[in-house]
Specification:
With 130 residues, the protein is mostly helical. The chain is built from eight helices and no strands.
Length: 130
Amino acid sequence: MTFYHLNFQRFKGCTINTKSSAFKYMLARKEELSSYLDNGSLPMTNSLAERTIRNFAVGRNNWLFSGSPRGAKACGVLYSIVESAKANGLIPYKYILHLLKELSRHAGKLTSEILEQCMPWNPNLISLCQ
């Protein structure tokens, strides 16, 4: 359905209240909803983002029992590491083992170069963590 059709439906008069409010919502956000037409690299939907955060949404109730704010922060950091590994095609378990080994080896003397080598997008990690 195009925005032209939405305008037509709105002026035709919708009797269903939810349909009417959906049309109003879409018409008010025409520019944002059609931005993918101007930039071919933008996806038409946000399903990838929704699938990525689904585990987070399911797990957030479990994080209520993290024990403390520090525990909740640790859960969030671990979740971020796991999802970054997945997004870069790494096996999260192998990636976390690699991080623990490398970071403990350089404890107290971490530099930006060492941290960059540990990032999940580092091409050298592909053979180690896949």
